[in-house]
TrEMBL record:
<dbReference type="GO" id="GO:0005739">
    <property type="term" value="C:mitochondrion"/>
</dbReference>
<dbReference type="InterPro" id="IPR013123">
    <property type="entry name" value="SpoU_subst-bd"/>
</dbReference>
<keyword id="KW-0808">Transferase</keyword>
<dbReference type="Pfam" id="PF00588">
    <property type="entry name" value="SpoU_methylase"/>
</dbReference>
<dbReference type="InterPro" id="IPR029064">
    <property type="entry name" value="Ribosomal_eL30-like_sf"/>
</dbReference>
<dbReference type="GO" id="GO:0016435">
    <property type="term" value="F:rRNA (guanine) methyltransferase activity"/>
</dbReference>
<keyword id="KW-0809">Transit peptide</keyword>
<dbReference type="InterPro" id="IPR047182">
    <property type="entry name" value="MRM1"/>
</dbReference>
<protein>
    <recommendedName>
        <fullName>rRNA methyltransferase 1, mitochondrial</fullName>
    </recommendedName>
</protein>
<dbReference type="InterPro" id="IPR029028">
    <property type="entry name" value="Alpha/beta_knot_MTases"/>
</dbReference>
<dbReference type="Pfam" id="PF08032">
    <property type="entry name" value="SpoU_sub_bind"/>
</dbReference>
<dbReference type="GO" id="GO:0003723">
    <property type="term" value="F:RNA binding"/>
</dbReference>
<dbReference type="InterPro" id="IPR029026">
    <property type="entry name" value="tRNA_m1G_MTases_N"/>
</dbReference>
<dbReference type="InterPro" id="IPR001537">
    <property type="entry name" value="SpoU_MeTrfase"/>
</dbReference>
<feature type="domain" description="RNA 2-O ribose methyltransferase substrate binding">
    <location>
        <begin position="36"/>
        <end position="117"/>
    </location>
</feature>
<keyword id="KW-0496">Mitochondrion</keyword>
<keyword id="KW-0489">Methyltransferase</keyword>
Amino acid sequence: MSKKIRHTFSRAISCSSSRRAKKVKESYIYLEGSEVLYGYFPVLLALQSQLRQVFKLFITKHKLSLRQKRIVELATRNNIDIDAVDSHVLDMLARREDKERGVHQGICVDVSSIPIQYINEYPINASRRTDILLSGIKDPFNMGSIIRSSYFLGVNDVFISEDYKTSSISPIVSKASSGTLEIHPPKKILNIDSFLKSNNKMLIMGSEDKGIDSNLTKYCTNFVTIPPGRDLHPDVDSLNVSTASAVLISELMRTNKGE
């Protein structure tokens, strides 16, 4: 069943006097999907990967940039409906979960949720794998950044568990990952205990405020820290979890390659 979003637009009309008045008219946008992606790379990679069902592309009605033209050409080849709209409509479509306006770059797309694979056991013959488990990473911007770094640096899979509260896989995550979510979505673990008992090597990253849950630390054989490169100010004592993840992943990849 489609859902509709009401929006308003103003149109200047002539009056009998020399003044001009504005008449506000209501109209509706009907959305078939469950999410709206916004921004060039999330939309581009969603169209390319075809992991989601794409219902309609919304594009600025103003002169198109080369990037926007590329999106329109790709949507046309895939027989996707295209609707040219005013900027305020795109602003409304790109409104984030936190009610702030997302940076849409003149492009939004109505899509289904990205399919997530659920697994019970760690892959067999995984001695050369490098994977990461995210536990309690609630900030969608951190989640997106970690997914992007993981893909770039060569991580096989990003895992999340429903047993430990983690950010939902939302359009904000796709935007924060610069669209990497659309080609490298995380996998969800059904039974965290059996999963961790069967794996060989796993980087586990916990929340910035509480760290790794004690139920997970019992499976850890090594605990690592990233030493600072200078004497730190007392109120600047750590790295953001997404930055720390990138540093540790890079080190793990070098270890796996025998460097």
